[in-house]
Amino acid sequence: MSGEKYATASLIIPLAIGLKNVCNILLKKSFCKEVQHVIECYLRSIQERFGSLEQSTTLMVCTFIDPRFKMLAFSDKQISENAKQKVIALVASKVNHNVDTTPHSPMVTTDADELCVWNYTDVTVARNTPRIGTATSRAIVEVNCYLEEAFLPRNEDPLQWWKAHQFNYPHLSMVVREIFCALGSVTVSFFRHIINMHLRKEYGAKLMK
User: Fold this and answer.
1) Interior/surface letters 163-196, b for 16+ CB within 10 angstroms, e for the rest
2) HSE of 32 in the Cβ direction (CA atoms, 13 Å)?
3) Among 50, 51, 111, 162, which residue's CB has the most CB atoms within a 10 Å radius?
4) How far apart are the C-alpha atoms of 173 and 177, rounded to whole Å?
5) Residue 69 near residue 16 (C-beta atoms within 8 A)
6) Contacts by 158-167 with C-beta closer than 8 Å and gap 24+?
7) What is the pLDDT along the chain (209 residues), one digit of tens a residue?
8) CB 129 within 8 A of CB 106
9) Is 43 exposed, middle or buried (0-12, 13-18, 19+ CB in 10 A)?
């Protein structure tokens, strides 16, 4: 699903929110002043660097179409609803692209057809065939059905889930194929760098005394 040193895009928002939550929990514990200072710097760095992650369309969509997270991995309901609307728009564009635009002429029954054994059935089916609806309405139905599916356990492979469900969600699965494997690439561990930076500053200050 990703390289050894790269997290896939659907993990970035949940990880950032989880790290922030862990820092807030640690701040409530009784540590020495130096450790408290490091945690506070760590939390500020997360907020400064990752505070706008949920404004990224790519990250929002990837998180939403991950069956492990869907709408529950975001920091508030408004952001999760924004992600849903973005996915619906993408799915609607796929529906528009694949919709049959050939006009269907009304069924005309001839005298010969009236004597056909299948005439009654064909006419009844034609009269009761539901209208296809707009691309947006079809997209809403497909996305809502996806949301009603059970969540995939976090340690299972979402790509395998989509492989098994691609025919249930034909247009949403097109979006998955195009965007889901985007990578959130960081070549150096940001968090290790922040901790080391502050430890060096602390030890450097002590050496200078």
Assistant:
1) eeeeeebebbbbbbeebbebbbeeeeeeeeebbe
2) 2
3) 162
4) 6
5) no
6) 158/1, 158/10, 158/66, 158/67, 158/68, 159/1, 161/67, 162/67
7) 444 556 788 998 998 899 888 888 988 888 888 888 888 888 888 888 888 888 889 999 999 999 999 999 998 899 999 999 999 999 999 998 876 544 444 545 555 566 677 777 877 777 765 556 788 999 999 999 999 999 999 999 999 999 999 999 999 999 999 988 777 655 444 445 555 555 444 444 443 34
8) no
9) middle
Angle at which helix 170-179 crosses helix 135-148, to 10 degrees, equals 80
Q: Are 107 and 123 in contact (CB under 8 A)?
A: yes
CB-CB contact of 165 with 149 (8 Å): yes
* pTM score of the predicted model: 0.70
Q: How far apart are CA 73 and CA 90, in angstroms?
A: 20
- For 138, the token pair is 């079809």
Nearest to 180 by CA among 201, 166, 200, 190: 166
The enclosing H or E element of 152 equals none
Q: Which two tokens stand for residue 198?
A: 């502050």
